[in-house]
Amino acid sequence: MIERSGTLGEPEKAEEVNPYEVQSTAKDLKIREMPGVKNEKKLILHSKFVWGESEVFTARIDPEDNLIATGCSDGLIKIFDINLSKSLRSVFACIGEPIPITGLRWRPSTQINNTKNILVSCSADGNISYWHATTGKLIHRITEAGNQVLGIDFRSDGELLASGGKDYKVRVYDDDTKSLSVVFNGAEWQYTGHSNRVFAVKFLNDNPNMLISGGWDNTIQIWDIREGKSVGSIYGASISGDSLDYSKGTILTGSYRNKDQLQLWDLGERKLIETLDWGSNFDSAFIYGAQFSKNDGQYIIAGCVGNNQVRVFDRTQRNKAAFSIEGSSKGIYTVDFANNLSLIHI
Fold first, then answer.
1. In which element (H, E) is residue 137 found?
2. Pairing of β 343-345 and β 21-24
3. What is the pLDDT of residues 94-118, one digit of tens each?
């Protein structure tokens, strides 16, 4: 079940609200403004989509903010039309038994790759699958034999796709040929790398040759495609989902633990900037999803299991929590900001 649950918008003027919208996986949500923050925007429930009891592990809004794709615990990918508030289609993305969908990304549409509505999924059976979202047609499939692919990300030009997974490696594919461009291996005695599962990979939008990754080994690895190796690391974040993001020299991490869950790091200095204050029930907020707002980086959203809450933080208000979304009977495994519209999915 998915809900579009709220909207962050402009302040009230003559009793009018231009909200910032949210989509969610929960019933009976409650939206609460946090004390001590002067909110310039409002957060309101917009609408709901309901389909069953399967968990939503990953979700992404398309670059034009028209469609939303969700990946579920039962191996289904469901596509929804945001404007019409209805389901368009479902596809079973697995070969054989149902396997959870662990990541989704829309391929950026460029002059070279100008076909729109190309959705890429990854799953715990080691497959990376390309779909035409509006028809449900499978276009291509990459298989990482013996691996569980747990996270993917496109470079902003759509020419490279990165993956991370169970085998501690980060792979970078040429999207045109679907062939491996570089493999960043796990840690060895003479090389820096991951020493446990990799759950998140992220290309830096201001440096096309760099990407970062995180997982269970408590490190953020910083990779340089030109050198084919890690050129640095930051210790301190334990990542178990799509909770790694980057904006203007700052890394955001959401950790699955009972303290110091949401943190900002300086990429250049390789050090902690700040640990954000979750507020009440912080010791039961185990974060699976975290993200900067895409259009301006002003907001941070994070969702968790444990207390099954979402927090929206305002970076112009000293990174304080501005809104809390509560009342979900299930954990929040995924969050996503729209690209241009005032829309959030949880």
1. strand 137-143
2. parallel
3. 888 889 999 999 999 876 777 889 9
